[in-house]
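Worked Example 4.2. Consider the chain below.
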Amino acid sequence: MLYRFREAQAAELGLGTRGDRRPKMASACKSLRECERWRGEILREISRKVSKIQDSGLTDYEVRDINDEINKLLREKRHWENQIIALVPGTKGYKYFGRAKDLPGVRELFQSRKKEEEEETQALAYYKKFMHQGPAYFGDLDESQAGDGLLDYERESEEAEWREAHLHIREMLHLPADEPIPDVPRGARPLSDPPHVDASSGTNNAKRKASSDADTGITNAAPEPPLDNAKRSKTDSAPSDATPTPSQHSMQANAEMAALYIPFLSPKDLLPPKLPTRDEMEGVLLRLQKQALVNEYFGEA
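Applying the procedure from the previous section yields the following structure tokens:
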């Protein structure tokens, strides 16, 4: 009851909801009924403010503000009246009263206008069905309402797309089609198998560990004297190990295996890019600095 009372009170005061506010432009309203409604609302606001401005307890600033609002409402009322005149059937500014609306030719004007309003009302009613919809309309509650059926359907669709893509790749790479198709990788399952470590790599690691322990013992027994800067730079620039590491062996083996399935690529093309060493990077930076100094003092060649 209180909600209905507040709603009726807001309607009397001309205060509507956010979606039911008066348009700022009178020309945007194409319905004669709506134009008359907004004009009546403006008249009620003018009457209410004219009554309020008679209060002797208002200050001069409040009186000026209310007077400005009344003038603004009067201008807005004139705009709505012009829009009503433009929407009324007949010549511009000419109105029909009483039995004049039943004159031959005038009745057809009103009927055509009424038909247009009915079509606009039907179109608005059609589009109102899609307005202010809840989450169920957009499918946000499908998973909670359908249970596991939707998840099963999505899983089957995902597996079908996986099989189709796998067969397409086989056809493009000219691979045998009789091999079984692998399962779809899920989140809980690892995407790839752990790298295979052969016995030779384990033996090399053991030898390397033993040699490092021996070097540590020799260092603790007899520490070498510190080298000068020239010798240290030469020692740092020398390569530590010229033999390929086990990781390089495994990368080479993986590249050779992948090249068997991709005939238009060589194992060298499938290897990861070779990164520059520290000495190479320092050499490049040194050349750039030298070039910058030469350009600064002698100008560009």
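Confidence is low (pLDDT under 50) at residues 189-203, 214-242. The first helix runs from residue 2 to 13. Compare this with Example 4.1 before moving on.
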